[in-house]
Amino acid sequence: MKPWQHKLASAVGAGVLFAIMAAAITRTTPWQEVGAGGAEDIAALAQALFSDYVIALEVLGVLLTAAMIGAMVIARPLGVPLDRQHYPDVADELLARSMDVSDIQHPAYLRGPVAVRPEAPPAGASVAVADAPEAKQGEGPEPEADPAGGEEE
Amino acid sequence: MIPVQAYVLLAAALFCIGVFGLLTTRSALRILVNVELIANAANINFAVFAQHHGHADGLALVLFVLAIAAAEAAVGLGIFIHLYRHTRTIDVDRSAAMRW
Questions:
Q1: What is the spatial distance between Cα A111 and Cα A105, in angstroms, rounded to a whole number?
Q2: Torsion from C-alpha of A99, A88, A144, A125, nearest 10 degrees
Q3: Residue A26, C-beta contacts closer than 8 angstroms, at least 6 positions apart
Q4: Looking at CA atoms only, how far is residue B1 from chain A in angstroms?
Q5: CA dihedral of A59, A65, A69, B67, whole degrees rounded to 10
Q6: Any bridge partners for residue A22, and if so which?
Q7: What pLDDT score was predicted for residue A57?
Q8: For chains A and B, what is the number of CB pairs under 8 angstroms?
């Protein structure tokens, strides 16, 4: 399916959806909007939030904390073990190694003037296929078998 | 004053714009932006009906929806960072390994 066909079908679908919703909305009798209360609205919101919905508020705080921690665990660099206590040398070295961003190929409009452009890495090194991260993560559990041994090079 | 239907029509229009943008993009970040737009269209509805009925329950729900959308955006961004590290692209059409 060509891109313009895809866009046209999506536009038609969204337009049909809007037509159905607009027909349902405008068939009802028009209500009159009450004017905004300003400070009384905020006082009423605080009253409702801390008396009726206080449990939901606390659970929301826990949810936000859990989401942030989860996002940090999901987005951690590849191959770094989760605890530094048991793998202190491996963790720090892999963390330092994974922070290396010199192989990122920026788009042309972000590369800067020609005189300071960094050398492009070979094409085979930066394209990460599915087996490359698996090979890197396979190095993570390796220190388990050899805790007193040196780090892999 | 402005009738309630104008606000609800605005929310419906924003929802449809968000759905259109969500379906016609390949970038993962744009998908997140459109999901936020759809959630905010629903927020407009909550706020309008809270104002119309005089309760503050809708306003509390607006705050909850906003916080949950923020948490979802954080986790979604974490997933996209991990996806980029594996596939070196944020094109979601290229990351269709679980589709036929």
A1: 9
A2: 20
A3: B5, B9
A4: 6
A5: 90
A6: none
A7: 94
A8: 131
Rounded CA-CA distance A67/A69 in Å is 5
Q: pLDDT by residue (tens digit) across A71-91?
A: 988 888 766 666 666 666 666
B91 close to A (CB below 8 A): no
C-alpha to C-alpha distance for A15 and A34, rounded to whole angstroms: 30
Across the interface, which of B4, B56, B68 has its CB nearest the CB of A48? B56
- Calpha distance A66→A105 (Å, rounded): 33
CB of B74 less than 8 A from some CB of A: yes
CA distance A82 to B74: 20
Question: Out of A14, A32, A48, whose CB is closest to B3?
Answer: A32
CB contact under 8 A, A33 and B52: yes
Q: ipTM of this predicted complex?
A: 0.86
Residue % of chain B over a pLDDT of 90: 62
Contact flag B23-A10 (C-beta cutoff 8 Å) = yes
Q: Which of A68, A78, A74 is nearest to B88 (CA)?
A: A78
**B100 token code pair:** 């036929």
Tell me if chain A has a CB within 8 Å of the CB of B26. Answer: no
pLDDT in tens, A38-64: 667 888 888 888 998 999 999 999 999
**Average pLDDT for chain B:** 90
